[in-house]
Design brief:
Structural class: alpha/beta
CATH topology: Metallo-beta-lactamase, Chain A
Order of helices and strands: EEEHEHHEEEEEEEEHEHHEHHH
Number of helices: 9
Bound molecules: zinc ion, fe (iii) ion
Largest sheet: 6 strands, mixed
Number of strands: 14
Shape: globular
Radius of gyration: 17 Å
Number of domains: 1
Oligomer: single chain
């Protein structure tokens, strides 16, 4: 099993540090370098590779300083390599990689950005969703259509229910409140809202969260058609 550490970065981003059983170290979406360097130094770890889920600065801003300091390899979505400096490995849909002796499955989830990828480590049951899926929410449609994002969410929905989801942002509380406006009778959303209120009040992340739980509480995953998804996304954007 890969050991995953959650690092709060910038105002509400999460970067993740992965430590494999063989000692291999990866960083996912370092929006800033300082929290990652601090964590790595305190734990005497040297990262080998950085993964970016998409090109936005709050997920890639730490790439350059981390590469300068540790000389790590940079794996970026192939379709966004023109917008991320210094990529050495191009991540493509259906690509199979290995990390620390475990499988890594890459799949493209366009919608938030046109080449966004999610990273799935099936042996460790971990899925890194960047800004495609948030707990009880999903990313805004900056570069894609509602149909594309809906199709991307269907790919996530098809993974095993016990998959643990690690998202790019701590938006859970806001998302829960919006979810309750859409589904006021949904007791699972209400229960999760209360749970997250306590976690956040004590400074703890609301992540990871299982796919099974998201299927009960995430209105965007619960949308049965792209049309319904599009409607919900518009309502959420209006705030
Ligand atoms: Zn983003
Ligand atoms: Fe982001």
């Amino acid at each position: 099993m890969i050991k995953i550490s959650i690092l709060p970065v910038l105002s509400d981003n999460y970067a993740y540090i992965l430590k494999a059983e063989d000692g291999d170290i990866a960083i996912i979406d370092p929006g800033g370098a300082a929290p990652a360097i601090d964590f790595l130094e305190r734990n005497a770890l040297v990262p080998r590779i950085i993964f970016n889920t998409h090109h936005h600065g709050d997920h890639t801003g730490g790439n350059a300083p981390l590469i300068a300091r540790y000389g790590c390899t940079l794996a970026v979505p192939a379709k966004e390599s023109g917008r991320i400096a210094g990529g050495n490995i191009m991540l493509t849909d259906g690509m199979r990689q290995s990390f620390g002796g475990e499988a890594l499955h890459v799949f493209e989830t366009p919608g938030h950005t046109s080449g966004h990828v999610c990273l799935h480590f099936p042996d460790s049951r971990a899925l890194f969703t960047g800004d495609t899926l948030f707990s009880m929410g999903c990313g805004r449609l900056f570069e894609g259509t509602a149909e594309q994002m809906w199709a991307s969410l269907q790919k996530i929905k098809a993974l095993p229910e016990n998959t643990l989801i690690y998202c790019g942002h701590e938006y859970t509380l806001d998302n829960a409140k919006f979810g309750l406006r859409i589904e006021p009778e949904n007791a699972d959303i209400l229960a999760r809202l209360h749970e997250v209120e306590i976690l956040r009040a004590t400074g703890k992340p609301s992540l990871p969260i299982s796919l099974a739980q998201e299927k009960k509480t995430n209105i965007f995953l619960r949308a049965q058609t792209p049309e319904r998804f599009a409607e919900l996304r518009i309502l959420k954007d209006r705030g």
